[in-house]
Amino acid sequence: MSDSITVSRPIEIKDNSVERVAYDLMEKIAFAESKIETENFRKPNPREYYLKLYNQCHRTVSWSGVDIKDIL
Fold first, then answer.
1. What are 26-54's pLDDT values in tens digits?
2. Cα–Cα distance between 11 and 43 in angstroms, integer?
3. Labelling 50: which of 10, 19, 27, 44 has CA 20 to 30 A away?
4. Distance, CA of 6 to CA of 2 (rounded, Å)
């Protein structure tokens, strides 16, 4: 297994792609949650928080294996 990544062409993120919609949704949720951050709700690890949130958003907008229990 290699630790390097090679990109052979430009990466395109289209406005209507599942990935773009998931990213935009993630941003909106993260912004809303940052407004209600309290003692009971803190993001312990920002990297883990955003990766998990993006994964949940991607699964939601692509309708792949979405279970409401996983989202809430």
1. 999 988 887 776 656 666 688 888 999 99
2. 30
3. 10
4. 10
